[in-house]
Amino acid sequence: MFIKIIDSVTKASFFVASLALALIVIIFCMEIIMRYFFAAPTSWGPDTVTFLFCASLMLAMPEVTRENSHIAVSIILDFSPHSFAQKFKLVLYAVSFCVVSYVFYVSMIEFVRLFETGINTLGSFRVPKWIVFGFIPFGLGLSAIQFVVLIKKQLSENLVYKKGA
Fold it and tell me: Are 146 and 6 in contact (CB under 8 A)?
């Protein structure tokens, strides 16, 4: 049940990331038309694209983790015996979980600081930084949970492989 809830939140997060990416494309196209055809670029376009890019990236990261579809140099896994590759994957997931969890912790501290101080972004229009920055700990935290799910699945695969051998 817990995994289904986490996967649903992850898929919803990815959907919102996709919408943010679509908005980036629309705003860029509008900005090009306004700039080159009407000589009147928007003042808010570049800043909005930057904010949406942060949201898109961090909201998509948990789905990439869930699908285990991140970029990887897998030469060690590809040319190793199956049993070693399975154990090595487990170690990689555990190390990745530790790193992502630590970065989540650090980003959460910064998020709370930004929320408490009320610092705004610089640019053509000001937005509280915590609103933009909030996507970072959210994406990292959800990715850390997805690494726990991957570790659980990998442990299950290792047990099945041992029983079958």
Answer: yes
Distance CA 25, CA 72 (A): 28
Dist. CA 84–CA 77, nearest whole Å: 8
128 CB contacts (<8 Å, ≥6 apart)?
114, 115, 118, 119, 120, 121
Asked whether 101 and 107 are in contact (CB, 8 A), the reply is no
Residue 58: predicted pLDDT: 97
Residue type, 76: I
Q: Do residues 89 and 154 make contact, with C-beta atoms less than 8 angstroms apart?
A: yes
Spell out the domain ranges in the chain: 2-164
Structure tokens, 5 = 């809830």
Please give the pLDDT value at position 74: 81
3-state SS string for the chain: CHHHHHHHHHHHHHHHHHHHHHHHHHHHHHHHHHHHHCCCCCCCHHHHHHHHHHHHHHHHHHHHHHCCCCCCCCHHHHCCCHHHHHHHHHHHHHHHHHHHHHHHHHHHHHHHHHHHHCCECCCCCCCEHHHHHCHHHHHHHHHHHHHHHHHHHHHHHHHHHHHHC
Confidence (pTM) = 0.88
